[in-house]
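If you are new to this repository, start here. Below is one unmodified record pulled from the training split, so you can see the exact layout before writing a loader.
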Amino acid sequence: MIKQKILVTVDNVIFTIIKDQLNVLLIKRLIEPYKDMWAIPWWFVYDNEDCQTAAYRELEEETSLKNVYLEQLYTFSDPKRDPRGRVISIAYMALVSRENVLIKAWSDAAEVKFFPIKSLPKLAFDHKKILDYAIQRIKRKVEYTNVAQYILPSKFTLSQLQKVYETILDTKIDVRNFRKKLDKLNIVKETWDKEIWVQYRPAKLYKFIDKKVKIVEII
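And here is the target side for that same chain:
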C-alpha cells in the first residue's frame, strides 16, 4: 500500500474594481514561511468539508460575503510549491462588488487589502502563477458570459457597465456599438432610478435581468 501525507488547501483569487482598476485581495503573511510577504487568501480544507465549501468559508472570513460568484480555476500540485511539505492547492476565482466588501485580517494575516493587478507586490509561494491564471480566466469569461454583473453594484449605469468591460479587458470600447449590443441581447433593464449625489445630470440606473451565468457575447 502506498502511504501519502498530502495536505489540501483552497486559494481564493478575489477580484473587484476600484477607481476603474481591476484589483485583487491579498493578505500579508504573519508567520513563516514567507513571513511579511503578500499572498492570495488561502487555508487548509477541513476533514469534514469538500473543497467548494472550504472556498466559500474562506471567502466569507476574508470579505464577510456569502453567495457571491465563485468558480474553480485549476489545481496547482507542484511538489515543491510549499517548503513545509506536499500541499496541493485548489484555486478559485471570486467576483465581488467593492461596495459590499468588509475585509478583515484573520489569525494568519498581519494585514489584508486590495491591490491593482498592475501594481502588485512580490507574492509568496506560487501565487503569482495562480493569479496570472485567474487574470486570463476573468478576461475570457467576460468576453462570452454575463459574469461582469457580479463585480458591479446591484444597480448601475450603462457607462459603469461598459467601464467594467474596458477595465478587465484593458481596451477601449465604442459606446454606440456597446449600447446597440446591449439592446439586441436584452440582458439589462431600467430600474426607473437615477444616480444621486452627482454634480452632473444623473444617469439612469439599470440591473441585469437574469442573475444566472449564461453565454452572452457582449464584446
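Two things worth knowing about this chain: The first strand starts at residue 7 and ends at 18. The chain has a mean pLDDT of 92.
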